[in-house]
Amino acid sequence: MAILEERGIDPKGNNLYPKFKNQIYALSPDYTNDGILVRYINTRVAKKYGPVKMREPETLLESQKYMEVVINELRRMI
Prior knowledge:
Blueprint: H1 2-7, H2 17-20, H3 33-49, H4 57-77
């Protein structure tokens, strides 16, 4: 992920685990940094818009735009 490269963080490392362990349900220390970010983004979007398979086309477009908000939030967090 570009966010990790911007910050010089190894995507396959797991040093982001302590920062996200209380924010992502059932996150374990063996998750890699790139996997942690994917789970965080998916969790945030699903909480706001529900599961992908249940979203109407308009909602899918809205949720895509919301991902940008979440990604900018991640940039501030890490």
